[in-house]
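Hi C.,

You asked whether I'd gotten around to modeling the 221-residue construct. I have! Everything is below, sequence then structure, no commentary in between.
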Amino acid sequence: MSGAEPQRCPWAGIADPVYARYHDEEWGVPQGDDRRLFEKLVLEGFQSGLSWLTILKKRDNFRRAFDGFDPERIARYGDRDIARLMADPGIVRNRLKIEATIDSARALLRLSERTGLAAFLWGFLDGRPLTNRHRSFSTVPAETPLSKAVSKALKAEGFRFVGPTTVYAFMQSTGMVNDHLVGCHRHEACAELQRRFTLAEGTPRPAGRPGGGTGRRTRGG
């Protein structure tokens, strides 16, 4: 006999096994890998106006279509690549978002001449994730002063489709903010991962950046 399902955040669509697995294994786990952070930032931009489950089910197609989210390869994309992507039914075929991904890859390469993406982003929290204790999604914000600051900085570097709401969803999903509800079985597990999280040794870190803000978001991005 199988055991009872654990208590999860009540996202719309959480009964889908793909979504439940993402909730249980990925959402809220601190991430310090530049490539994975770039992939997540891009996919959050593609999600805008759609459900995250739609993106999640297309994620493998996105990885294939965008060369594993290798920024050096994406930065070299031209008109033929844009046409190829626009003809690919396995991804979200939005020209603005495709072109934004190319621009963001180029922005990442420029940024990498100074620091890594992980160091840049985590620098806003001084490397220390935020653990919130929400009991209802009614108290979870869509954006915060911190996500506004990160959004502004990313845009200044040349990244696109990184508005404050998109950035906050990104921060939730990559464990910068723990917004699992306290009644969810993953809240304490992710809190423990946050307590143990450190950036990779030797990762260059930028100067201190503005922090603050607490973690309205009703789905996992």
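If it helps when you're writing up: The chain has one domain: 17-196.

Thanks,
B.
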